[in-house]
Amino acid sequence: xxxxxxxxxxxxxxxxxxxxxxxxxxxxxxxxxxxxxxxxxxxxxxxxxxxxxxxxxxxxxxxxxxxxxxxxxxxxxxxxxxxxxxxxxxxxxxxxxxxxxxxxxxxxxxxxxxxxxxxxxxxxxxxxxxxxxxxxxxxxxxxxxxxxxxxxxxxxxxxxxxxxxxxxxxxxxxxxxxxxxxxxxx
Length: 186
Hints:
alpha/beta; five-stranded parallel beta sheet; four-stranded parallel beta sheet; 13 strands; about 15% helix; disordered N terminus; disordered C terminus
């Protein structure tokens, strides 16, 4: 191959890398404790003890581009870090600002429990974000403490309530209503 062809190959290789869509990250939650991600955006779901918690997986998903998937084992994941008004999932509800799928192993064995501290999910659209999918799990014991709406989730006008897909998923618990509340129109 002549020297003339090498720059052309380099340009083609770079163009091929740029044209590839971002692959979805898969975060496998391996601890049930409620803990924050040590370094959101570094590509690794890891809390201070190197475990991947549900909250850390949501924070990592929010901080990196592309749609992500969070996989939960058969367990109950209790949100235990109290705090209201936070929009980065560091406390209270799990703030979601990216396309995300959260998958459990079944509604009889995977539970996300807000322990009546706050909602379970708070959805914020960022640059075309359009959906959150919950599958094979139960969402329960969320409460709407700061604003009108229901306890399972809230959403922004750009990510309306209808963008949340639950198939199969059960929401509710402790006499609290399930559903999605909007930061704008539902």
